[in-house]
Amino acid sequence: MPELPEVETTRRGIAPHVTGQRIVRLVVREPRLRWPVPASLPDRLADRRIEEVSRRAKYLLLTVPPGTLILHLGMSGSLRLVPAVRTPARHDHLDLVLADGLCLRLTDPRRFGSVHWTEAPPADHPLLRGLGPEPLADAFDGDWLYTRSRHRRSAVKPFLMNAQNVVGVGNIYASEALHLAGIDPARAAGRIGRERYRELAAAIRTVLAAAIEAGGTTLRDFLASDGRPGYFRHHLRVYGRAGEPCPRCAAPIRLRVLGQRATYDCVRCQH
DNA sequence: AATCGCGCCTGACGGC
DNA sequence: TGCCGTCAGGCGCGAT
């Protein structure tokens, strides 16, 4: 399931191949994604050039003057570069066919992903407008989290997963970062002090950077643009490890449901 | 204003 | 073996 590291892995994988390439055409085989793929999209993209591939939160942004193609991978989506002549498989919903004979192929079994086109600055798009800071950027730190969390009564884990507070921290990395920082995921966000938020912000950066380094986390279906899985799964400290010993104190890892999400923590060393 | 709960969708998995 | 019910999971949205 693509979280920020998986999307960044995808961006890094495709950028060298697609940057500067001319789009021959867009082939839409299945427009029924989370939102319908705009019918006008093929006309807008044909014969245009991809200038840049960037990322905001979990959105991939392809700069294609005069606009921007915005892609979200949902939770089962992946983008791969394949020969345009390769026969598409069942969940290969669209192909961005490039001038060099390859195509960028979007595969998404659950169809929670989406594709958007905007000719305004992408930051103004309704889906991006309200997003919080990038966790790996300077604008994100413990002081920001501390300020944002005052008087919040919700648990810190769903607080972290709220993209208005910080983007890109999904279910896996929220559990991981809270373990690294020694914070109980169920603790009220408003009852955590400034210093602990500084530790938490550092833990988020550490976990995300390490996950990007490992090529993301593959649980079931995430594949990078070259078709290889991510290897961060082997580095996960608590996620998916209920009953196993905590890597820090050896007490058992617990599985709870918090905000309707599976949440893993150590019964002893997170407070 | 903050928070909760729903629904989208498929594949995996467990029970029988 | 095969069928069927259940569930995860990102995230926007409507309800509270």
* Gross CATH architecture of the largest domain: Alpha-Beta Barrel
Sum up the overall morphology in one term.
elongated
Total number of helices: 7
CATH homologous group name of the largest domain: MutM-like, N-terminal
Share in helix: 25-40%
Total count of domains = 2
Low-confidence stretches: none
What does the average pLDDT come to?
A: 91
How many extended strands?
Answer: 10
| Lateral arrangement of strands in the main beta sheet | 1-6-7-5
Structural class: alpha+beta
**What fold name goes in the CATH topology slot of the largest domain?**
N-terminal domain of MutM-like DNA repair proteins
Describe, in short, the structure shown:
This protein has 271 residues and is α+β, with helices and mostly antiparallel strands. It has helices at 4-18, 41-45, 126-129, 142-149, 156-161, 171-181, 194-213, and strands spanning 23-28, 52-56, 59-64, 67-72, 78-83, 92-98, 102-107, 114-118, 253-258, 261-266.
Characterise this structure.
This protein is an alpha+beta fold and 271 residues long. It folds into 2 domains: 4-129, MutM-like, N-terminal (N-terminal domain of MutM-like DNA repair proteins, Alpha-Beta Barrel), CATH 3.20.190.10; 142-266, Helicase, Ruva Protein, domain 3. 25% of the residues lie in helices and 22% in strands. The chain contains 7 helices and 10 strands. Strands 1-6-7-5 form a 4-stranded antiparallel sheet. A 4-stranded antiparallel sheet has the order 2-3-4-8, with helices on one face. Strands 9-10 form a two-stranded antiparallel ribbon. The protein is elongated and about 55 Å long. The protein starts with a helix and ends in a 5-residue tail after the last strand. The model has no long low-confidence stretch (mean pLDDT 91). The structure holds a DNA duplex (16 and 16 nucleotides).
